[in-house]
UniProtKB/TrEMBL annotation:
GO terms for cellular component: membrane. This is Mechanosensitive ion channel. Residues 191-256 form the Mechanosensitive ion channel MscS domain. Keywords: Membrane, Transmembrane, Transmembrane helix. Pfam families: MS_channel_2nd (PF00924). One of its GO terms (molecular function) is mechanosensitive monoatomic ion channel activity. InterPro entries: LSM_dom_sf, MscS_channel_2nd. It comes from the Bacteria. The chain crosses the membrane at residues 18-43, 64-84, 90-115, 145-162, 168-187. The lineage of its organism: Bacteria, Pseudomonadati, Pseudomonadota, Alphaproteobacteria, Hyphomicrobiales.
């Protein structure tokens, strides 16, 4: 290698050093890009019919591989270029930063590939997807926290290559107490959400695709990042909430232990309706429905008022959206049944005259009052 460098410098001795150096660096860039293009095409063809792991490895490794090859070719060019001490030190420092960046980038890509391959065995579109939602939530939060740590360590390692930052680091260690307090106060919101994310991954009060009621709105957990949660509301709006919200604020999780739910339908009928007929028709509607999961159907008289009785219908379905559809179907068909078979059972206002000499006048007055109201 030393002989090659000596021969090269003797061959280019007639050119100015800066021309030789720039030419070598430019050639190194073009040569590195050409090598990357050939290598990437070769790898792409090799994994074309392979499984997801190898295809993800090639896809996610494209850019880190390009940076690694360029770092190598530029390092070789810098080692044989007739550079002065100042430019040589600068280029070596830049290449060192590139090498650290390659390591961090590769670690982040490897983490993403591992999570992607691990999660492909779980199907979120299944009817009972509790296990899948558990693993997806833990993996996604773990990936984002891990990515944050990799980025932070990479940036810290790059900064520590600067002498000024190294001296500052020593001074910080000397006054770690004050610096720690100041840094903790400055980063409190971010650190609060990071630790909340770790707590969510362990305790899992929410998971991906959970049905929630937050801030008076119903929706599904669409995405969990390292600092916030995206809830897709029923009308397709998105509610963005910090991770700490789900640790500090009470909320409803309809699918915490499973996706199946029991829906409620309330109807108010006159006392003349036979409850047994309502119960029979409700069971018929449930058996005819494709949404009912064949688990819960019940009819109960839950309250009385001076004019109507309150009937509660309970019916179950496999998921929150299906439960909502089942409730709507039950309302439509039970109202149709009552209108057709028991129209007199719908709530109404009674006005009856007193049995005395002024009965006709009392009856007329009651009728006029009802018409005016």
């Amino acid at each position: 290698m030393d002989q090659f460098i000596a021969d090269f410098r003797a061959y280019t001795d007639w050119l100015p050093n800066w021309v030789v150096s720039i030419g070598l660096l430019v050639l190194a860039v073009f040569f590195g890009l050409a090598i990357h293009r050939l290598v990437f095409r070769l790898f792409t063809r090799l994994v074309e019919n392979k499984d997801l792991f190898w295809r993800s490895l090639v896809s996610r490794g494209k850019r880190p591989l390009k940076l690694a090859i360029l770092t190598f070719t530029l390092s070789f060019a810098a080692s044989i270029a007739p550079l002065a001490a100042g430019p040589a030190n600068f280029i070596r420092h830049v290449l060192l930063l590139g090498f650290i960046l390659v390591l961090g980038w590769s670690a982040k890509a490897a983490l993403h590939i591992w999570v992607t391959v691990y999660l492909r065995r779980f199907k979120l579109d299944a009817e009972d997807n509790l296990l899948a939602r558990t693993h997806v939530t833990q993996s996604r939060i773990g990936e984002r926290v891990g990515s944050f740590m990799i980025v932070a360590l990479t940036i810290a390692a790059m900064l520590m290559t600067f002498p000024a930052v190294q001296q500052y680091g020593v001074s910080v260690l000397a006054s770690a107490g004050v610096a720690g307090i100041v840094l903790g106060l400055a980063l409190q919101p971010m650190l609060k959400n990071i630790f909340a994310g770790i707590q969510l991954a362990i305790t899992q009060p929410i998971r991906i695709d959970d049905a929630l009621i937050v801030e008076g709105e119903w929706g599904n957990v669409e995405e969990i990042t390292s600092t916030y949660v995206v809830v897709k509301l029923w009308d397709w709006r998105r509610m963005i909430l910090p991770l700490s919200y789900f640790i500090e604020t009470p909320f409803q999780n309809w699918t915490r232990e499973g996706s199946a739910l029991i829906g409620t339908v309330m109807i108010y009928l006159d006392y003349s309706v036979p409850v047994s007929a309502i119960r029979k028709r409700v069971e018929e509607i449930a058996n005819e429905s494709k949404i009912w999961d064949r688990k819960v159907v019940n009819v109960q008289v839950t309250d009385f008022t001076e004019s109507v009785m309150q009937i509660r219908i309970l019916i179950s379905a496999a998921s929150a959206p299906k439960t909502f559809d089942m409730r709507c179907e039950m309302r439509e068909k039970i109202i149709d049944f009552i209108q057709r078979d028991y129209p007199a059972a719908l709530p109404r206002v009674r006005a009856e005259g007193a049995a005395n000499a002024n009965g006709a006048a009392v009856m007329d007055g009651a009728r006029q009052h009802v018409l005016q109201s």
